[in-house]
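HUMAN: Please help interpret these tokens:
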Amino acid sequence: MHATERERLILEALAPSGFVSYRDLESRLDASPATIRRDLSRMEAEGLLVRVHGGAKLSEAEEAEPSGAALLGTPFDQSITLNLAAKQAIGRAAAALCEPGEGIMIDGGSTTVQMCPHLDGLDLQVLTNSLHIVNGLLPQKGTRILVPSGSVFREQNIILAPAGEDSMPRFHAPKLFMGAAAVGQRGVMQHDIILVAAERRLVDRAEQVILLVDSSKFVSSSGVIVCGLDEVDVLITDAGITPAQADMVRGAGVRLIIA
């Protein structure tokens, strides 16, 4: 098992209670105690957790629950203005992948919200955690909108449930459209572990994961891993992606679309 996959599983194990024991990690990871200790040491250095007697716990910065807490990362009102033309083109290309009448999931983000104007008339069922996306879809009479339960994070205007709580309605959608804070060899990353846990639940429900990121997201490669590139089916970006970055994406078996 690759270190990236072990890191994701460790974070998943921490999510419900904020603590995981060495014994639990040994059974989950099928890895030696020495390997697990190295993983925990690396993750502690990255500020993702704290090693304690008998296992590990979430760092204080990562323990925040949705009640009044703010997510790490750039507020939506700021990120929406960055690389706007590229994001609009990416949103248009993503909407073109939707089939009339199907159910889709759209994760909140400044790029995914650009899909909304192009979904009118497709009579879709849309599950989203983003109030911005809800507002964008409300004028579309034929679009059915579903939202999860949870608390609202005002800076991002998204609805998230506490760690370990599955708040999603019973809904099957073949396609998930999601963004990211960064994309690199290690996978798809976000800044905040609460957001990662929510997105992971969406990824696990989807038959097809479609990633919407402008080319600036390939510059930074720091953050908490949501999923590996091999779990992404389609990646839509702009012409600013370099040949090396494009080769990395295609090398993981991902279909690359340049908007």
